[in-house]
């Protein structure tokens, strides 16, 4: 009993650490995708759960939760991030419970510590997107799969958990439909004798291979039935909506594995100079998998991790799905592999030393990349534009216009205190924003005339939206990276006179 109390207090402390770290670092600016989530959360629930959502690639569950959260008073950057932070902390608790239930308390505490200090996990839980809930759902589904496999009184609750977790994952990110193949396939591969030959012998009887296949098929079938509404919506997507995901690059299998190693580990890597750290992290995971290779939980997680790149690569033949965020949810399995492997180290001093060194590396990784959390600094952009009289903010495309309005509403609790000049774009992207701007966009000539009436003009760029490039402004900065520099200016309105040459964009 004393040991249980000590374990409970230690785990509670680690969960509090996870929550506190994420909350303390959450005060930086939201970015384009986060604001897009707020725009969807502004829509009525009846619209979110209708064919209107065919314009979007992701399901409406997270947007519905965010709408409710905002209705409860979340009106600032930190309070908005509290929703995914809470889900992320719950995810840490679920992973710790899996380790404690199917391995040991030591593994549970180590897993909680690793996730609490992980830069990648912090990044995911700061996104005002559905990624954290998708990761949580896949972990709940894994717990359900394990409970069902144990049989007995856990059989039916395990089946229910698998279905609920799978639907939570899928309805917060479409790519998690792949989990319905990855999870069950991994279990079958790990226990192929039971599924193809012997069944499972239990204390109170036996589950035949037929019963195993029947239960597994039932879980997947019910999950697919639950997912069918969103699949039906996707089948009604206009052809133009495919441009929402046209920016996703197609990777071959080797590139897919590399992308997973780069963005799916607990460590964060932002430069080529950190390649040795990525290799070292991968080697450490493999070593811990070796120490825990006799543990069924570790073997299952290893197979899941191995199947993920195959599934992503296979799906990408039809639709590229590999991005920085879509490959991060299996970090749950990596944390389990490492935690169980560390717990299998026999010498207590060695085990404690490995935990200490690993935690120190995670802390240093998190601290050294604190400034890299900011993707687009909308707060600074809006503050600078608002600080000067007779200012205008130049944006391009309907998506950037509605995002700028949403950013102003969050920053100033009302309309923008400066003019927004929306420039037309020839890019067929961000179909999701169609009709939400409620105003006509300006062509190049009209934009130049409008900008000429302002003393100070700022411009923001995002991806392919680069209004100064479109207008061929002589003072624009060269393209450096995908989204930096984000804000340019101020420029005088008079500098937007005649185009120095014909616009070929």
Short description:
With 505 residues, the chain is mainly alpha-helical.
Structure, explained:
By secondary structure, the protein is mainly α. The radius of gyration is 25 Å and the shape is globular. It contains 21 helices and 6 strands. A hairpin with a 2-residue loop joins strand 1 (200-202) and strand 2 (205-207). The model has no long low-confidence stretch (mean pLDDT 92). The strands form 2 sheets. A 4-stranded mixed beta sheet has the order 4-3-5-6, sandwiched between helices. The chain has a two-stranded antiparallel sheet with strand order 1-2.
Structural class: mainly alpha
Low-pLDDT residue spans: none
Total number of beta strands:
6
Major β-sheet annotation: 4 strands, mixed
Overall body shape: globular
Output mean pLDDT.
Answer: 92
Gap from first CA to last CA: 71 Å
Compressed to H and E, one letter per element, the order equals HHHHHHHHHHHEEHHHHHHHEHEHEHE
Beta content comes to 5-15%
Helical run tally: 21
Strand order of the largest sheet: 4-3-5-6
Helix content: 55-70%
Q: Report the C-alpha radius of gyration, rounded.
A: 25 Å
Which features does this protein show?
single chain, mainly alpha, two-stranded antiparallel ribbon, 21 helices
How do the strands and helices of this protein lay out in sequence?
Elements: H1 2-24, H2 32-41, H3 45-48, H4 61-71, H5 77-102, H6 105-117, H7 119-126, H8 131-150, H9 155-170, H10 179-190, H11 192-198, E1 200-202, E2 205-207, H12 209-235, H13 253-263, H14 275-291, H15 296-316, H16 331-343, H17 348-368, H18 378-387, E3 391-396, H19 397-412, E4 419-423, H20 444-451, E5 456-460, H21 467-470, E6 487-491
Helix pairs in contact: 1-5, 1-6, 2-4, 2-19, 5-6, 5-7, 5-8, 5-16, 6-16, 6-17, 8-9, 8-10, 9-12, 10-15, 11-12, 13-15, 14-16, 15-16
